[in-house]
Write the structure tokens for this entry.
Amino acid sequence: MPQIDRPEYISDEYLTDVIRTGLAEDVGDGDVTSLATVSPDTRAEGDFVCKQDGVLAGLSVASQVFRMVDDSIGVSWKISDGANVRAGDVAGTVRGPAISILTAERLALNILQRMGGIATMTREMVDAVASYRTKILDTRKTAPGLRLLDKWAVLLGGGTNHRIGLYDMILIKENHISSAGGIENAISAARKYANNSATPLKIEVEVTTLDEVRRALRMGGIDYLLLDNMTSVDPDGHLDTSLLTAAVELVDGAVETEASGNVTLETVTRIARTGVNNISCGALTHSVQALDISLLLNLHD
């Protein structure tokens, strides 16, 4: 995978705030265990060891955690963000005052494990659809306060960011359609709002039936159709994609399509086979399996 630079939405101020909040809730007035048991003169060095295969993510954030606790701590990485790792690989090393390293350790590992878990699952899904022109998208189903880190991790896994929040794209969903009095009213109102917006706004409409697809296309002026839950699993556990396939054929390239619902590592290839442009998966960020990484320290005076 190509090297992914820090995205524009990750500002220095955001990183500082996230780390400061994390340290405040974890460290409070001080790491009393380390202060009680470790001499201030004790130095430590250690390795970040990967305990499973996966994708590394969040290295620069983890480094900043250590620097914000104690800027005399040195962290060096042997493997880059977004790289595949194998169980047993040493990702990097840390050196400095033992108390400071022990104080920063948990938050740094939490970030590496969460971002690595997201990047790993994303990479697996991206690889599963590699034979098709289908992008894997994230969603807004992220951890409160960590959305931008979660979305950065998706990029590092080879995925694509959907909208960042409620402010950068119009996505008309079922409840909006109901509140507006129908899909036509909702699209008309959205187009008017977008035309008067000071910043460009794409419009996406959620549809669940072929009739809704036709009605949305007749209205025009939209950029994407979200084909929601147009797959189903039969009693034998097989995925039925016939409705989704029909919807993609009906759209026929008029707008970009996005499939959601029933998206797992086991089903994503079948869904991509329908010809849909994008597949969004909330599980990338709402059901994260942490990447197992440990910090093994050696202490010395």
